[in-house]
Design goal:
TIM Barrel; 364 residues; nine-stranded mixed sheet; single chain; 15 helices; globular; alpha/beta
């Protein structure tokens, strides 16, 4: 039983359109089980869903690698997969008695236009696209269905959009703290917004709150990639720590835009007391113009060596270094990269290549 994935035995994911999926690696429409609006009771759905029970049966029968969307995790030899994360959290769980894990996104409301994002995941992208995805939110009825299962949870993951923008996230969180103080709460946030009401809620149970801060650069590189201000994000993480004791962990999305500046992040945050560790296992595959695989092999390998031999790696996780070491270059694609850079330059009002000399030299 050690090689099965515990995700279908412990919980599921709810997306901003109300779609229920197996896990964060299976959130495409192809893998949607059903809509939360079609479910009267989430606990009953968890126990009786034909699709979930089929996946459980296949897992127990040893057919894990043949199940979609599970095949990706089972074929991935890197330890940082959701399968390994959930198995470490629930080593012995193979009985679907009640929902213990829940990941949800209440909306695609977001204050940022990250360089690698689009309107499907950020409402701020709507005005920049010709055919944008609509702004979507879970209904009040859907929110209350989530509230009903809070007493049995021991891990809740809140994503976005930007979770600090949507008040429904803190409505749910306050409900959780009223009835279940043992549940671990994980946020994935850009940390560019932090209001007093957020702090007041988080102070209710700070030992159970974990912040994964999406910080992809330092200074103007961060500003260009994430569209919000680096100084403001740093101040918010520090303020959160001083007011609540909650530290943040950096969750870097590795792209062609920050590959040459990764060590700047390591250096800046290496001695910051409000940062626990630095994680950069999330390597961007698309859009294609954002991927480090577009770089020429020589340039790619030279920079990888610089990262791995950098002097300041004290807060970088071992898994991150293993991930970087395993990276391989792909097919050079200068056209896609600089078409995308030109688009974001126009939005930001400055050229990222002025702050990343390696990209400027490659552009020629």
């Amino acid at each position: 039983m050690s090689d099965i994935c515990k995700a279908p035995f412990t919980g599921f994911v709810i997306g901003p359109r109300g779609e229920i999926n197996y896990c964060c690696n299976g959130i495409s429409e192809d893998y949607t089980i059903c809509s939360i609006d079609e479910v009267e009771n989430l606990q009953e759905f968890f126990s009786k869903s034909e699709k979930l029970n089929y996946v459980r049966e296949q897992m127990l029968a040893g057919n894990c690698a043949d199940i979609n969307p599970c095949a990706g995790c089972f074929s991935n030899k890197n330890k940082f997969t959701f399968k390994n994360i959930i198995n470490e959290k629930y080593p012995n769980e193979i009985k679907s008695t009640h929902i213990r894990f829940l990941e949800f996104t209440t909306s695609n409301l977001c204050n940022a236009t990250c360089a690698m994002c689009d309107s499907r995941y950020s409402s701020s992208w709507v005005k920049y696209e010709n055919a944008p995805s609509p702004v979507v939110k879970l209904s009040k009825t859907a929110i209350e269905k989530i509230v009903k299962i809070l007493p049995g949870l021991d891990w809740m993951m809140i994503k976005g959009g930007e979770p600090f923008v949507d008040k429904n996230n803190f409505y749910i969180l306050n409900k959780l703290f009223d009835i279940n103080k043992s549940c671990q709460v994980s946020f994935v946030s850009n940390m560019s917004i932090l209001e007093q009401e957020h702090i007041d809620t988080l102070k209710r149970n700070p030992s159970k709150v974990y912040i994964n801060a999406s910080v992809d650069g330092v200074g103007k590189v961060y500003d260009w990639i994430r569209s919000t201000k680096f100084e403001n994000t740093v101040q918010n993480m520090e303020r959160l720590y001083l007011d609540t004791g909650i530290k943040s962990s950096l969750a870097i999305t590795l792209s062609i835009f920050n590959y040459f500046n990764l060590t700047d992040i390591f250096d800046y945050f290496s001695n910051k007391p409000y940062i626990t560790w630095i994680n950069c296992v999330n390597v961007l595959e698309g859009p294609i113009g954002c991927s480090i695989k577009c770089l020429p092999e020589k340039l790619f390998e030279e920079q990888k060596h610089k990262i791995l031999t950098h002097s300041q790696l004290n807060k970088v996780t071992d898994l991150s270094l293993k991930k970087i070491k395993s990276l391989t270059s792909g097919k050079e694609n200068k056209t896609s990269v600089f078409e995308h850079i030109h688009k974001i330059n126009h939005m930001r009002g400055f050229d990222i290549c002025d702050y990343v000399p390696e990209l400027k030299a490659w552009r020629g």
